[in-house]
Every structure is written in structure tokens, then in C-alpha cells.
Amino acid sequence: MRTRRLDPRELAAARPEDLAGAVLLAAVRLASGPLPKGARLDGVSARAVIAAAADAALTIPVRVAWPDPDELLEDEAAERLARAAGGAGVELRPARQGRIDLAATWDGVLHVRAEPLRRVNAIDPLEVFTLYHGQAVERGQVVAAVKVAPHLLPAGPVTAGVQLARREGPLIEVRPYRPMAVAAIAAEAISPDALARFEGGARAKIRALGAAFEGTSVVGDADPEAARAGLAQALAKLVRERRFPVLLVGGVSAGDPIAPFFAALEELGGVVVRRGVPAHPGSMIWLARLDRTQLLGLPQCGMFSMATAADLVLPRLLTGETLGAESLAELGHGGLLTREMRFRFPRYAQNLEAPEG
Predict the structure, then answer these.
(1) CA 255 → CA 145, 198, 274, 285, 286, distances in Å?
(2) pLDDT value at 356 more than 80
(3) Cis ω before 170 (30° cut-off from 0)
(4) Statement: the pTM of the whole predicted model exceeds 0.70
(5) The pairing of beta strand 181-186 with beta strand 212-218
(6) DSSP state of 39
(7) 91 has which bridge partners?
């Protein structure tokens, strides 16, 4: 690129065609309004700059650059990269000073492919930054942004970033909640009041995510064998007859290897995907699978009315995502769910009480 630092006297003597096509390297304030840095001068804006210099309204030098044929303006570069990085559920906002925001087009869960994202960001001078992978987001919320630092840059780095993002992307997408029905099992003796709290908490969360809550099966027999048989019957009915895609289970501890529920699950051919997750509070939640149904469990029914790590998992289940052990292992990054980290939760959980301990 060719650059110049033009003082007001030089500008006053210039012709509009001398400046047309140049890019401002710093903002210029005119009586008619500011010209931002990175703006490309056309005939009208070039005449306005020259007139301001001639009238002594412009008293400081103006720094400009003329791009080479293979160079891109910052806004154009950012838009190319943003279109390549964004997938389903995101839309581009208008560019401003080399930055383009990507906003969610629906309520759902943000998915970020972290390793390709890191590789794109390793290309100087490309910048792509996001919210957390797996974070619940709302329609219209900015979930990521793309920026390039120079006002002019060679096309090569942008092309490399675009190709990487398209090959291994989309880097950023928002998966919407699916309209589905969810049921629950209370695998412990539970009073009517406790059951009402359990169902109330579960129903509020499920409905907030666009799904329907279909009630609770209570199996609280004190005899382990009778409990196993009752739980196997309840599971078979909910999974194989009514075909619920997601079941909530309360009263089963991830740390109890002889819990009747796990025996019933194994009897039916189900598997435990993960006992406990690397996030707190709620590190004792567990995830299991029986046929095509995913089961999310907590050690106490009352915890479903609180804010726990389950509120990072439940939204993903309600988008239809099949979670594995690797997906749950990712919760460790940002998994210390203190009050300051509540922004990671869906809105319904941000002000709920958390379990003690």
C-alpha cells in the first residue's frame, strides 16, 4: 500500500480525484459529521475534506493509504471471515470499524468448535471471539464477533482463515430447542409437598426451554429388589412405550454403585454415560442412555428446583444433542459455577438458589 500524511495546506491544494479511493488511517472530524478510521473516501467525502482544509476548519494532518489490488478493507475482510465462521442460528450484524457481531437467530445452545477456532486465531491478524461453548443463549444475543486489526490487509491471511473455517466449520452455530415432551422419575420415597416442589422446579425449567413436562413416576420402595423391579417397569413404560427422548431422574446418587435404579437400567440394556461431572455445584449429576432416551439424574429430587451443573446439561439435551462422556468432560473449563458464572445458565436458573456444599 502507499501511505501519506497530508497536512491541511497540502489537502487544500489537492483535487478530489487525488484522494478518491484512499482509506483513512485515523478519524477525521468535519462540520458535517465524522469520517471514521478505515473509511474509504469517495468523490463526495474527498471534496468535504478538501473544503474543510481550505476553510481552516481542518487544522490537523490527515493520514491516508491507497490499497494495492490484492488488499482488503477491514470491513470487507471481517465480513468474509464472519460468513465463513457462522453456521445455522447466527446472523451477521452490520460491520463497524473492522468488527462484525454474530447474533443468535433463535433461543438455543451455542456450539463452538474450539480447536479450529484456535487455528483461525493463530493466523495474523485475524480475530474471532465467542461466548462459552455449550452456553444457553437467547434470540438476538451477540454470541461471537469477528475483527481484523489493520485498516488494510493482504487478502492471503483472510483467504486462509476462510478456507479453514469452511473446511472444519461451522465454527459457531446456535442449535435451537426442539419442541419435545419430557417426563421424570422420583426414585425415592417422597412426600406430596416434596413431589410438588420437584415437579414445579422441573416443569418451570422444561417449559422455559420450549418443551412440555408430562409428570412424574414415583418409585420409592424401601426394599431394594422391589425398587429395582418397580424402576425397571417405569423405565420400560416411559422409554419403550411412550418414547420420551429425555427423562429426569431424582433421588439417585452418582456415587452409589448399588442403587436399585442402576440395576434396573442395566437389566433393560441401558448404560451410564458418566457418573458425576467436572462442574460445581451439581458435580454429582449423572447421565445415562436407554435405547434412544437420555436420562439426566440428580442425587436428590429437591435439587431440580436449584441452580446446578444440570442446568448446563439440560438445555443441550433439549436441542436434541446426544451427549457423551467427552461432551460432559468439557464442562470443567468454566465449571466452577459461582454466582459470577451464572451468565452461563439459562435465564431461568440465574437467580435460583444453589445447593450447599
Answers:
(1) 41, 21, 11, 9, 9
(2) no
(3) yes
(4) yes
(5) parallel
(6) P
(7) 103
H helices, E strands: number in the chain = 11, 20
* 246-250 vs 181-186, strand pairing mode: parallel
Beta bridge partners of 183: 247
Instruction: Tell me which residue of 3, 8, 7, 54 sits closest to 24, measured CA to CA.
Output: 3
Give the HSE-up count for residue 242: Cα atoms under 13 Å, Cβ half-sphere.
Answer: 17
Cell of 340: 459470577
Q: Which helix (H) or strand (E) holds 253?
A: none
> How big is the CA angle at 119 (ends 118 and 125), to the nearest 5 degrees?
95
243: left (phi over 0), alpha (psi -120 to 50) or beta: left
Segment (H or E) for 224: helix 224-236
pLDDT of 198-241, one tens digit each? 999 999 999 999 999 999 999 988 899 999 999 999 999 999 99
Q: What is the mean pLDDT of residues 137-160?
A: 94
The DSSP symbol for 55 reads T
Q: How many CB atoms lie within 10 A of CB 181?
A: 15
Work out the number of other CB atoms within 10 angstroms of the CB of residue 338. Answer: 9
Residue count of the chain? 357
Could you tell me the three cell numbers for 79? Answer: 465480513
- The DSSP code sequence of 191-211 is -HHHHHHHHHHHHHHHHHTT-
Give the separation between CA 56 and CA 30, rounded to whole angstroms: 11
Look at residues 89, 71, 87 and name the one whose alpha carbon lies nearest to residue 148. Answer: 71
Neighbours of 204 (CB within 10 A): 15
- pLDDT digits over 3-41, tens only? 889 898 988 899 998 898 888 888 899 888 888 888 889
Residues with Cβ within 8 Å of 8's Cβ and at least 6 positions away in sequence, in order, are: 53, 56, 58, 59, 60, 61
